[in-house]
Design goal:
Blueprint: E1 27-34, E2 39-45, E3 53-55, E4 61-64, H1 81-88, H2 91-110
Antiparallel strand pairs: 1-2, 1-4, 3-4
């Protein structure tokens, strides 16, 4: 029965054209290494910008071999209340406001 089965093509999964004369895009192999010494090789296009840090399949961060580790590129500086206050007021304005509020409280407690 198996010798009578119909043979067919998988639609859309394979090209009918040959690959002769087709040149692949230029690529470069880049090597990364984790803190535990695990080596990871990644292929990039020749003109691609190479990231300094790569996350491995195990979830660890690998650093570019012969490269420098960036100073936490994903970590943004978290603005504090003081930073936001300084965006709206100068230090002199804040000192004046403080003096006014202290005078107000002293007046309230004196009664």
């Amino acid at each position: 029965m198996s010798d009578r089965s119909l043979r067919g093509m998988r639609l859309g999964s394979q090209s009918m054209e040959t690959e002769s004369g087709v040149e692949p895009a230029p690529r470069q192999r880049v090597e990364y290494r984790t803190a535990e010494g695990e080596s990871v090789s990644v292929m990039f296009a020749a003109e691609a910008e190479i990231p300094p840090v790569w996350t491995t399949k195990t979830g660890q961060e690998a650093i570019l071999v012969n490269g420098e580790k960036p100073e936490n590129p994903n970590e943004k500086h978290q603005r504090s209340h003081w930073d936001m206050l300084l965006e709206r007021r100068s230090v002199e304005e804040l000192e004046e406001t403080l003096k006014q509020r202290l005078a107000f409280y002293e007046e309230q407690h004196a009664l």
